[in-house]
Amino acid sequence: MSNVFMDTYNRLPVTFTRGEGVYLFDINGKKYLDFGSGIAVNVLGHSYPPLVRAVSEQAAKYFHVCNYYQSDVSCAFAEKLAEACAPAGMKKVFLANSGAEANEGACKLARKYSLLKYGTGRHTIVTLKGSFHGRTITTLSATGQEKFHRDFGPFTPGFMHIQGGSVEELEKALDEKTVAGLLIEAVQGESGIVPQTQEFIREAARLCAQRDILLIFDEIQCGLGRTGTFLGLEQYKDEAGNQIKADIVTLAKGLAGGIPAGAVLAGEKTCDIFIKGDHGSTFGGNPVAAAAGLVVLKTVNDPAFLSEISRKGELLCCALKENPKVKQIRAKGLMIGIDIEGEARPLLEAAIARANKQPGLLMLCAGANTLRLLPPYIISDSEIEQGLLIMNELL
Ligand SMILES: Cc1ncc(COP(=O)(O)O)c(C=O)c1O
Fold first, then answer.
1. CA-CA distance, 43 to 258, in Å (whole number)?
2. 375: nearest Cα among 363, 393, 391
3. Ligand 1 test: best mutation among 104, 132, 218, 233, most atoms within 8 Å of CB?
4. What are the boundaries of each domain within the chain?
5. What pLDDT, in 10s, does the model give residues 97-141?
6. Which residues on adjacent β-strands are paired with residue 259?
7. Which residues of the chain have pLDDT under 50?
8. Span 31-48+303-394: which CATH code?
């Protein structure tokens, strides 16, 4: 434990020194089953051998060259990423370091598209209540949750929050004279795993296309296979049964399996909007992160691997539904929100204290009464059973 950190996190009393597969080990050698993946980051678990190899080999070659030049590995990563997001309509990539940075890039891109085509005054980005888009001043402005706004104003103007699921509010908010983009999570993570309805996304896509408002999907938590498809938005269809396409997609968290990385992906309308000097990032596309990202993309963007994520999610949810303390479960793939009777935080603490009996369990909460599970994709059925046993014992 250290006291020199600013007091920004309500940390749990455990200090880790090592990880292996779905387990983390603390300074006393105690073992913990990780059902949180560092908030959807360690998608391939801890110390996944191909990741360790790729990162070590890249580190032995070079760490960084800066974006005045090209890097072989960053080019390969960007190509693979564009290919993985092509079914969602994506064509080009900007590499960043975090989710907030990716969302800032997306807002800049949407505003410039609108400015070039329609002139000033059409810059509003509509987002949803309950959304989470980051902690910078602009991404906080986009975030539709009051509790994150306290004390930090004034905020970036030009954001508006509407009720998710309400087609009526959507219809009213998407004013073609003032709105540049609609920024949504296919499945809201931070507010307790809230998937958007088919109807809402279908209408959002229809209205955005009709009014030339950019449809931006924040896939930072629900993308990269988490819901059982490469992007969460792939689970939504238009009236003709065609997959919904985006104008812009943002990614981060698990993109490099635990090394900071983020990305803005742009579709047909937006892929040539940024020109030289418009945007940049010192570490964006960092070669070590790119080497890790290539392993993540090659592993995750595979139909058999993705369907295993869905199957494992169902296995977990089916068993949890049986527990009488569980009030409601909202889930897609390995993105699971569980409303429980009573408070979630004491359960997180008890799950850690249980490490005395081996193993402890690491879970997340989202709000006072909701547990959030985001296990690594490489979890086995027997590790899921082990986690379920611990959860049932604790609940
Ligand atoms: C949906 C979503 N968007 C954006 C962010 C911000 O990402 P970062 O913390 O990497 O800036 C998060 C983080 O939890 C997120 O869940």
1. 8
2. 363
3. 132
4. 31-48+303-394, 51-300
5. 999 999 999 999 999 999 999 999 999 999 999 999 999 999 999
6. 257
7. none
8. 3.90.1150.10
Q: Is the CB of 217 under 6 A from ligand 1?
A: no
| Ligand 1 pocket test, candidate residues 98, 137, 217, 221, most atoms within 8 A of CB | 221
CA distances from 314 to 204, 307, 321, 329, 337 (A): 28, 11, 10, 11, 13
pLDDT at 125: 98
Q: Quick check: bond before 195 cis, omega within 30?
A: no
Distance 133 CA to ligand 1 centre (A): 5
Strands across the sheet with 326-332, in order? 326-332, 335-340, 370-373, 364-365
- Residue of 392, 227, 235 lying closest to 314 (CA atoms): 227
Q: Please determine, looking at this structure, whether the domain spanning 51-300 carries the CATH number 3.40.640.10.
A: yes
C-alpha to C-alpha distance for 60 and 72, rounded to whole angstroms: 14
For 59-109, how does the pLDDT look when each residue is reduced to its tens digit (9 = 90+)?
A: 999 999 999 999 999 999 999 999 999 999 999 999 999 999 999 999 999
Binding site membership of 98 for ligand 1 (Cβ less than 6 Å): yes
